Amino acid sequence: MERLQKKIASLGYCSRRKAEELIANGLVEVNGEVVTKLGTTVKPGDVISVEGNILDNSKSYEYYLLNKPKGIVTTTNDEKGRKTVIDLIETKARIYPVGRLDYDTSGALILTNDGELANLLMSPKYEIDKTYIAKVEGIVTIPDIQSLRRGVIIGGIKTKKARVKLKSIDKKKETSIVEITIHEGKNHQVKKMFDTLGYKVIKLRREKYANLTLKGLMPGEYRKLTIKEVKILYSLCKTTNSN
Ligand code: URA
After folding, report:
1. Is the pTM of this model over 0.70?
2. Cα separations (Å) of 203 from 84, 87, 121, 127, 178?
3. Among 56, 78, 87, 102, which one carries the catalytic annotation?
4. Mean predicted lDDT score pLDDT of the chain
5. Domain identity same for 137 and 197
C-alpha cells in the first residue's frame, strides 16, 4: 500500500507536491472514483487516472548501481547507435540513468525506473554529494586547490563550495591526482572547474554517489541497490519525503 500522491510522483507523472494539488482539485481517480483525500492509499493493480490519463501502476521499481566504463554513453538511446549504459544492464524494466557521466568518464551511476527518486536526486535542492578522482595534466598548486574549494567561475556563475584534496603528484610525468566532491551537476563540471585554472583533466572517475561507493564493482559491473540503500537515498532528499 502506498500513498496516492507518492505513487503518482513515483510513476513519473509529476512531483509529489503537484500530485497533492491535483488530488485536492479533484483531478485524480482511483478505480473510477474521484479521490480528494490526501491520505488515500493505493495498491498494485488499482487503476489510477490523473487529469484523464491512466497511469501504468503495474510496474515495480528497480534500482541499480553501475560502475560505468569509459567509452559508453549515458543515455537511453544514442542516435549514433553507440553502446549505452542501458545496454549493460539486464532487465526488461524501462530504467534510465540518474544524471550523466561523460563518454570518457567512468564510475558510479544509478539507474532506475523510479521517476520520483531520480528527480529528487537530480534536483540541486538536495545537494547530493558526488566524489570524483581526477587525473590532470600539470602539478596542481595549493592556491589552485583552495580556489577549487571556494568555487570558480563557469559561464559567469560561481561553483558552490567543494571538498578538494590533492592526493598525489607525479613530478616526472607532470600529472596530479585530485579528489573533488561537489554537489552540483553542471555539464562537464569537474573538467570545466579545472579548465578555468588552466589544467586539463585526462582521466575522470566518479568514486562515490551519495552513500554509494564502487566497492566490489569492476568497470562494466553493476548490482541492485538494497532496500536500505534506497531508503537512505530518499532520506537524503528529506524535505519532500516526510510522509
Ligand atoms: N564532471 C565532468 O566533467 N564530467 C563528468 O562526467 C562528470 C562530472
Report:
1. yes
2. 20, 23, 25, 24, 11
3. 102
4. 93
5. yes
